[in-house]
Write a structure and sequence with these properties.
single chain, 261 residues, Aminopeptidase, twelve-stranded mixed sheet, 26% helix
Length: 261
């Protein structure tokens, strides 16, 4: 298991694209759009790779190599020498070492949702009676500090505030003059974006998240981007929200492992 330099990521991205499971947060590392580390079995002729985003999202893919997966098991479960506080491991491919009964407690399930971008984009207008209370805005240099202070996600995935402004396509809902709900792209790769949406606790159950998501999705449609929504199957609020906006599940849920440091 050998760590690669960034200048050697391109063949690994090609290997990643040849697989069946594509996650923008993983691809963003391979494209050097976001920070992380990449390990392979053989740097000169890689057949299996492990990619770890700086926030902890990770994935192993490629042709199974016994020695590589043995070293990966030691890295994740014994040495725990990863930098994030926890690894959030996408496992459409489930490494054999994680299939052991002793690691069952680390497993949960997530669902991928997609939306048909071929259909005419829909618009959710603000009710005129509520217009004075709800306003929509984008994130720019004038409000980035306020958004970061309220939601704390500006540097979670993107490297800099400037990257967040330019690449996240964020939509913010203000309620009575205060930022209340945010929908943005946690990552973008190959015209796919990973949706993240947050509503501050004091503003929930007001329909603000749906308003943010609908306008974010419409914005993506206009930019020829494909929004992807992944959430835990026990997150009923997220599951209901994405379905209400028009997202559907093309496949069954996939296993997902959370490994604390």
């Amino acid at each position: 298991m050998i760590r690669l330099e960034k200048c050697r990521y391109q063949p690994i991205y090609s290997l990643y694209q040849s697989g069946e499971s594509f996650f923008p947060l993983i691809a963003a590392v391979l494209l050097d759009e976001q920070d992380g580390v990449v390990y392979v079995d053989n740097p000169n002729s890689p057949s299996q790779a492990y990619v770890e985003h700086t926030f902890g999202f990770a994935q192993v893919f490629g042709k199974v190599t016994a020695d590589f997966e043995q070293e990966l098991a030691r890295y994740l479960l014994a040495d725990k020498c990863f930098n994030p506080c926890k690894i959030r491991l996408y496992t459409p491919h489930l490494p054999s070492f994680l299939a052991l009964p002793e690691y069952e407690s680390l497993c949960s399930y997530r669902q991928r949702f997609t939306i048909n971008t071929e259909e005419r984009p829909y618009i959710q207008e603000i009710d005129p009676e509520l217009e004075k209370d709800k306003t929509l805005t984008k994130v720019d240099a004038s409000n980035i500090s306020l958004i970061d202070d309220k939601f704390g996600v500006v540097s979670r995935f993107w490297r800099t505030p400037a990257d967040f402004i330019l690449k996240s396509n964020a939509v913010v809902v203000f309620y009575e003059g205060e930022p209340a709900s945010l929908c943005y792209a946690a990552a973008e790769a190959n015209h796919y974006v990973e949706i993240d949406v947050l509503t501050l606790p004091e503003y929930r159950n007001l329909g603000l998240a749906k308003l943010a998501v609908v306008n974010f999705v419409n914005q993506c449609f206009g930019l020829s981007l494909h929004p992807l929504w992944d959430c835990f199957t026990n997150n009923l609020g997220s599951m209901m929200l994405c379905k209400s906006v028009g997202f559907t599940a093309p496949k069954a849920p996939y296993p997902f492992f959370t490994i604390n440091k």
